[in-house]
C-alpha cells in the first residue's frame, strides 16, 4: 500500500472511531453535577407545554428549519454509514432501502455513490426539502445514480407510509387506507414509483423494502408517536429486512445545553424554532423496537470527542447505534 493510501485509511479509521470515552463515566459526571439535575427529574406537563403543542406542528417546524438551511451546508455528508452499516455496501442487486426523513440528502449521497445495486426511496415531511435534495444530489452524483433515487413526500409519524411500499397482506393491517400524502407527487414520478415498487413482484410484495434507515429522525418525532412510527417501519420491511438506527444518546452535549424551560417531556426538548429532540438510552430504544416486533442485532452507545479549536473546547457527543431485524416468516 502506498504512503498516501495508508494515510487515507488511517484518517478514515480515526473518523469512524466511536469509543473516545466511556458512557458510564459520563453518566456519573452528569448525575453528580447540580446544574444538570433538572434533566433527571420526571416531567410534569404544564399549560405552557400544551400551548406550545397546539401552536407548533412538528412537520411545519421542520419545513421551516430546512428552508432556513436550504444551502445544504448545515449537515456534512455522512460517509460513515457504509462503514457502520456494511449491509448497505454489500447488498445484492435490486435491493431497496427506505430513507425516513432524508433532510438535505447527507445520508443519501454515500449510499447511492457506494452501491450501484441499491435503489433508495427517500421521504421527508417538507416538500421544499425534497426539491432541494434533488438539486444537491444532481450536483454531486452521476445521472446513473439519480435513476436509483425515488423521493416522495410523507409525514410518516402522522399519516404512515403510502400503500405502494407494501401491500395489505404483508402489512398485516386492515383495511389499507388511501395515503393522501402522495397527492402532490407528479404522475411521472408515481409511474416511476410503481415501476420500482415491490408490488410488481408477483402480486404480493412479501414486505416492501430490504432496508430502512432511521438516521437522526426518530428523535424529532413526539415521544408518544414513536411506537406507532416504528411499527410503520416494521410493516414496510420484507421478512428478514434490517432497520438501521442512529440518533441522539442520553447525556449528549446538545441535551445538556437545553435550559429547563425547553423541556416538553422526560428527555424530550423543544427548541425555540419549534423543532424537537429526544435523547435515547439503550433500554428505551430496545423496548421501542422489540415492542414493534423487531429482533435486536446491535445496540450500543457511540461516544465521540469533538474539538472546537477556535473556542478551545472539547465536546462530548453521544449517539445510539442500532440494527434491528424483522423476523422471517
Automatic annotation (TrEMBL):
InterPro entries: METTL2/6/8-like, SAM-dependent_MTases_sf. One of its GO terms (molecular function) is S-adenosylmethionine-dependent methyltransferase activity. Its EC number is 2.1.1.-. Residues 39-59 are annotated as: Disordered. Keywords: Methyltransferase, Transferase. It comes from the Eukaryota. One of its GO terms (biological process) is methylation. It holds the Pfam family Methyltransf_23. S-adenosyl-L-methionine-dependent methyltransferase. Belongs to the methyltransferase superfamily. METL family. This is tRNA N(3)-methylcytidine methyltransferase.
Amino acid at each position: 500500500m502506498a504512503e498516501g493510501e495508508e494515510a487515507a485509511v488511517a484518517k478514515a479509521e480515526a473518523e469512524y472511531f466511536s469509543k473516545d470515552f466511556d458512557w458510564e463515566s459520563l453518566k456519573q459526571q452528569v448525575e453528580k453535577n447540580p446544574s444538570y439535575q433538572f434533566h433527571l427529574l420526571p416531567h410534569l406537563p404544564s399549560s405552557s407545554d400544551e400551548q406550545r403543542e397546539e401552536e407548533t406542528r412538528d412537520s411545519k417546524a421542520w419545513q421551516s428549519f430546512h428552508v432556513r438551511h436550504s444551502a445544504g451546508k448545515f449537515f456534512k455528508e455522512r460517509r460513515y454509514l457504509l462503514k457502520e452499516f456494511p449491509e448497505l455496501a454489500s447488498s445484492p442487486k435490486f435491493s431497496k432501502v427506505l430513507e425516513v426523513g432524508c433532510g438535505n440528502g447527507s445520508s443519501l449521497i454515500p449510499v447511492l455513490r457506494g452501491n450501484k445495486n441499491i435503489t433508495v426511496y427517500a421521504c421527508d415531511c417538507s416538500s421544499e426539502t425534497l426539491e432541494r435534495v434533488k438539486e444537491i444530489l444532481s450536483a454531486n452524483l452521476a445521472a446513473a445514480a439519480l435513476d436509483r433515487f425515488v423521493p416522495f413526500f410523507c409525514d410518516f409519524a402522522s399519516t404512515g407510509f403510502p400503500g405502494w411500499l407494501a401491500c395489505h397482506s404483508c402489512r398485516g393491517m386492515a383495511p389499507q387506507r388511501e395515503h393522501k400524502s402522495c397527492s402532490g407527487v407528479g404522475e411521472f414520478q408515481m409511474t416511476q414509483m410503481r415501476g420500482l415498487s415491490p408490488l410488481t413482484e408477483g402480486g404480493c410484495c412479501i414486505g416492501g423494502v430490504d432496508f430502512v434507515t432511521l438516521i437522526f429522525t426518530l428523535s424529532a418525532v413526539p415521544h408518544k408517536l414513536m411506537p406507532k412510527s416504528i411499527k410503520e417501519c416494521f410493516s414496510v420491511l420484507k421478512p428478514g429486512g434490517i432497520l438501521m438506527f442512529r440518533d441522539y444518546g442520553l447525556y449528549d452535549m446538545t441535551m445538556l445545553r437545553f435550559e429547563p424551560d425547553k423541556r416538553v417531556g422526560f428527555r424530550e426538548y423543544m427548541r425555540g424554532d419549534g423543532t424537537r429532540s429526544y435523547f435515547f438510552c439503550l433500554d428505551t430504544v430496545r423496548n421501542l423496537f422489540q415492542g414493534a416486533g423487531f429482533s435486536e442485532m446491535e445496540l450500543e452507545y457511540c461516544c465521540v470527542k469533538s474539538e472546537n479549536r477556535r473556542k478551545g473546547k472539547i465536546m462530548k457527543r453521544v449517539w445510539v447505534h442500532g440494527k434491528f431485524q424483522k423476523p422471517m416468516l
